[in-house]
Design brief:
lipopolysaccharide transport protein A fold, elongated, 13-stranded antiparallel beta sheet, disordered N terminus, single chain, 43 strands, mainly beta, disordered C terminus, 1% helix, 1 helix
């Protein structure tokens, strides 16, 4: 039977500066046998020895404590669990001199994340520094001694500073699958309990056919628990070096992120190479909560020139860079949003001089609770657009809406909606066909009425659910059309699809009005779901009938006649193995001719994940060119560790071609991830030429990532 006594002393074990010393709490010693020898100067405990203080526990087969020498000895299956969940194992240990110094044999440490340190022997100094001889470190599972871990670091000496939470190595070899692959005379990293600490991160390597070899050597500064800085010099064999930096800071009510880069290098067009010039970029974004109802933020994206980001393979590269600020307020019934937007064009496809400065754009929405006459909505907006070339617009819009929904006893659902839009435009430099540019003020009042109806029907038979919903809407509005004194700023791009049916206008904005907008929309939804067979299907088809022909829309828009083209959507689901969807705009005059096709397939066949997306669009309102594009990807999983993925993107129009290809191999286990890939880009714009980029990422758990700086999985 175990004996239990209270001891006045404490024990500090190797590698734990505060072990068994918290708050001078009493010790509880449990053992099968406890005796006092030599005038009670020596306490000996044997058999299932257990020392407990607070959340810290020491276990061993044998414990001896010499009160005179102030020295403790423990041996036999020694283990210590500290309050942080770290477990220490040893065959033998002794500690003395106030238990701040000591030595041990066959020591190992198990961290909560399953990373491990092991050594033949070790010493502890000043209650802080632990020095291990002939040691190794790994974050991999290695329960079977006959199986080598995926990776481990072997070193002649490992030093653990428990105060600084840092692990350092001397004469360190990185072994991968049992083979040494790298050597360094000195290396250090934070111990696994540290989330962030200053120091060098793994370098990254990229090989690009245009730029050559790119090597990045980032250094991370943990300035405080709330802010950090990463400085990343970049060596580029085909150009001059580049410096990149990122700063992040959290506040009590928000955060700020800043990143930028700088270099002095050539800038080329297709025919000309400019002399060396300063090039770089600056991205700044911030978001803050003022209180529970108001928040604000900003986003700045600028470059020295429009090809810089793409040239140097930065993730933020796009056709246009948007800089903006916003103020947002909301409560249960209302919403306010104000913003200003400036755009920097990055592609030769767009004209910078015609890209507007939006300052400001203000929107307000209010929705009431249901009243006797229904729901009351009120929308108000103000917009200011300024261009170096083209129309300038100042617009204010007020829009009250009344919506009254009701149901009858037979399941019919009805909706009445009355909407009026009052808009005032102050415009200049508006180009008109065959006329001088217009400058002046235009006011417009446009009322709209909508009567909607649908009848949802549902039937459950055996394990299947059948759903059917016919739907219709009557829309009435005056015959107005659009005049050429008002520039079309919010309805330039238009695509007739199922989301436009049963709404008061097919245009997404208010600048452009339909010349004839008295119409009836009708459609049918049908769906089947079978839980037993794990099958699902859905179908929709709809059409619009106008009272008279509308000449606002293009000849291929599907709305150029009184009777519109047919809009449809079909979908099938076969559990988790296959999903198919098809959206179409079918020519009403020829049921075998379509103006738009969008086909998507996602399937899993054995260990293969396949995705295909095809889209075809005829030129229509706001879209001057035909579009036909194919995206395809396939990923094969060999086992729980290995997978291979290939993707391709192609422009299938007559003047098109391949847009990009990507091939990547991934290996992943509990402590290591590898991604190796090749990206081929066919993009051509001034100095940006088709190129190949070799990608490689190695992620070692707890150590960091050796990478190319780009995500292979995209």
């Amino acid at each position: 039977m175990k004996k239990t006594i209270l001891l006045f002393f404490f024990i500090v074990f190797l590698f734990n500066k505060n072990l068994l010393s918290k708050d001078n709490a009493p010790f509880i010693l449990n053992a099968q046998k406890i005796v006092n020898n030599h005038n009670k100067s020596i306490v000996i405990a044997t058999g299932d020895v257990e020392v407990i203080q607070g959340k810290e526990v020491l276990r061993a087969d044998y414990l001896e404590f010499d009160k005179i020498k102030n020295k403790a000895y423990v041996k036999g299956n020694v283990s210590i669990l500290d309050e942080n969940g770290v477990v220490y194992f040893a065959d033998y240990a002794e500690v003395d001199k106030g238990f701040k110094n000591g030595l041990t044999k066959n020591i190992s440490i198990l961290f909560p994340d399953n990373s491990k340190v092991a050594a033949a022997s070790g010493k502890r100094f000043k209650g802080q520094i632990s020095r291990l001889k002939k040691a190794l470190y790994t974050a991999c599972n290695c329960d079977d001694p006959n199986i080598k871990p995926t990776w481990q670091i072997k070193a002649s000496e490992v030093v653990h500073d428990s105060k600084r939470k840092k692990i350092s190595y001397k004469n360190a070899f990185l072994e991968f699958l049992g083979f040494p692959v790298a050597y360094t005379p000195y290396y250090s990293h934070p111990d696994p309990s540290v989330k962030r600490q200053s120091g060098f991160l793994f370098p990254s390597y990229t090989s690009n056919s245009e730029l050559g070899t790119i090597i990045r050597t980032p250094y991370y500064y943990a300035l405080s628990p709330y802010k950090d800085l990463t400085v990343e010099p970049m060596y580029i064999s085909g150009q001059r070096p580049l410096m990149y930096a990122q700063y992040r800071q959290r506040f009590g009510n928000g955060e700020v992120n800043i990143e930028g880069s700088f270099t002095n290098a050539d800038r080329r067009t297709r025919v000309t190479t400019y002399s060396k010039r300063n090039r770089g970029h600056l991205f700044i974004d911030g978001k803050f909560d003022h209180n529970d109802y108001w928040r604000y933020g900003f986003n700045v994206k600028r470059t020295t020139d429009d090809t810089y980001l793409s040239r140097y393979l930065f993730e933020g590269a796009s056709d246009r860079l948007r800089s903006d600020f916003f103020i947002e307020g909301f409560d249960d019934k209302s919403y306010f949003f104000a913003t200003g937007i400036a755009t920097q064009v990055q592609s030769s496809t767009y004209q910078s001089s015609k890209t507007p400065l939006i300052l400001p754009s203000i929107n307000y929405n209010y929705q009431s609770e249901k009243t006797k006459i229904g729901f009351l909505d009120f929308n108000a907006s103000f917009l200011s657009l300024t261009r170096r070339e083209g129309a300038d617009t100042r617009k204010i819009s007020l829009q009250p809406i009344i919506t009254y929904p009701f149901n009858d006893n037979f399941g019919n659902r009805f909706k009445f909606q009355a909407k009026t839009t009052l808009s005032s435009y102050m415009v200049s430099h508006v180009q008109r066909t065959g006329k001088d540019d217009y400058k002046g003020i235009q006011n417009r009042l446009h009322p709209e009425l909508l009567f909607g109806w649908d009848l949802p029907l549902q039937k459950i038979q055996n394990d299947s659910t059948f759903f059917l919903k016919p739907q219709a809407a009557l829309i009435l509005a005056p015959n107005r059309g659009s005049n050429d004194e008002i520039p079309n700023e919010d309805s330039d791009s238009f695509e007739f699809n199922e989301t436009h049916l049963f709404t008061s206008s097919f245009y997404p904005g208010n600048d452009k009005l339909e010349k004839s907008n008295q119409r009836i929309d009708y459609g049918l939804n049908f769906a089947i779901n079978s839980q037993k067979k794990n099958l699902s299907s859905n179908f929709f088809i709809g059409q619009s009938l106008r009272f008279r022909k509308n000449h606002n829309f293009g000849s291929k828009s599907g709305l150029d006649d009184q009777l519109s083209d047919l809009i449809g959507k079909i979908g099938f689901g076969f559990g988790k193995n296959l999903d198919i969807s098809y959206r179409f705009l079918m020519n009403k005059d020829s049921l075998f001719s379509t103006r738009r096709d969008q086909f998507t397939v996602s399937t899993k066949v054995y260990n293969n994940d396949i995705s295909l997306n095809y889209i075809y669009l005829e030129p229509t309102t706001g879209i001057s060119d035909e579009r036909e594009e194919l995206n395809f990807s396939i990923s094969h999983t060999f086992n729980n560790n290995y997978s291979l993925k290939y993707s391709i993107k192609e422009d299938m129009t007559h003047s098109g071609g391949l847009l990009g290809q990507r091939l990547g191999l991934t290996f992943i286990n509990e402590c290591f991830t590898t991604e190796i890939g090749l990206v081929r880009s066919y993009y051509l714009d001034r100095e940006i030429k088709p190129n190949d980029t070799f990608l490689i990422n190695f992620t070692f758990k707890t150590l960091g990532t050796f990478s190319t700086g780009r995500n292979i999985s995209n």
